[in-house]
Amino acid sequence: MKGIILAGGTGTRLFPITIAVSKQLLPVYDKPMIYYPLSVLMLAGIREILFITTPHDQKSFEKLLGDGSHLGCKFEYAVQEEPNGLAEAFIIGEEFIGDDRVALALGDNIFHGNGLGTLLRGKINIDGASIFAYPVKDPQRYGVVEFNEENKAITIEEKPQKPKSKYAVPGLYFYDNQVVELAKKVKPSARGEKEISTLNQMYLDKGKLEVGVMTRGMSWFDTGTVESLDDATEFIRVLQNRQSEMIGCVEEVAYLHKFINKSEIEIAVQKYGKSKYGEYLQSLLAP
Predict the structure, then answer these.
(1) Rounded to whole angstroms, how far apart are CA atoms 26 and 48?
(2) How far apart, in whole angstroms, are the C-alpha atoms of residue 198 and residue 204?
């Protein structure tokens, strides 16, 4: 399975913060936002990842992340000229995906929870599609899953004015290779975008969509507003300082999954210098 991280968009809900910098490069406590979805895909065992950015932000992402070799990964970059919807990511990434399955992570979504890696690695060989549902207070902001009395998903609507449930779809999706051709069939919605909910409904209509409800042990943040960005920052700060474990540390994920060895961690320690991030990586080398 390959991975795509969609890091485009203009971030207008965060203006003026995002006028001069990509939303996905903003700090969430002690690291750039993009580190969090990247660490999630790496937790799933995915090492080939395509970053889709706006035209003017691509060089900044390349400067931050490079070609991925320092993490034992392979990174590529592509551009989404206009914010035409999430489903367009599979059309832009068609050549990159090739004959493989693919996971899509949104660059402004943060996930954390015990057993997350095991949960994600169970999606690698998906036949069809797999998404998640998470209970929220404001489902009208998201794609919304409606369940029947047997807890089976029956509809998925994008940003409905009158949501049929409280279950939003977080920005993490797993698909088989059919997704590329199905994405080409998605017609723009009234908002003028190729909606990911339309794509998921296609899989649902085929009986090929798996929807897992995230349990209370899982945390999800969509950092698209100032309030949610602040909430995510506070969550990361409190958890890291209480547990002495870092969330979203991509070098640590790479090291624990044997993508890299101690020598790469030593190089990273030199790169990050005397920062808390560098000190944390140094602690991984302690006997």
Answers:
(1) 23
(2) 10
**3-state SS class at 173:** strand
Please name the amino acid found at residue 142.
Y
Cβ distance 194 to 85 under 8 Å? Answer: yes
User: Across the chain, which distance is largest between two alpha carbons, in Å?
Assistant: 58
Inter-residue contact 56 to 29 (CB < 8 Å): no
β-partners of residue 157 are: 144
Which residues of the chain are under the pLDDT cut of 70?
Answer: none
Q: Residue 22 gets which letter from DSSP?
A: -
Two tokens at 203? 């899989």
Distance CA 17, CA 23 (A): 8
Per-residue DSSP letters for 210-255? EEEE--TTEEEEE--SHHHHHHHHHHHHHHHHHH---SS-HHHHHH
pLDDT of residue 184: 96
Each residue of 176-215: pLDDT tens digit? 999 999 999 999 888 888 999 999 999 999 999 999 888 7
Residues 6+ apart with CB under 8 A from 158: 143, 144, 189, 191, 195, 196, 197, 198
CA atoms within 13 A on the CB side of 261: 1
Q: Are 87 and 183 in contact, with CB atoms under 8 Å apart?
A: yes
pTM to 2 decimal places: 0.94
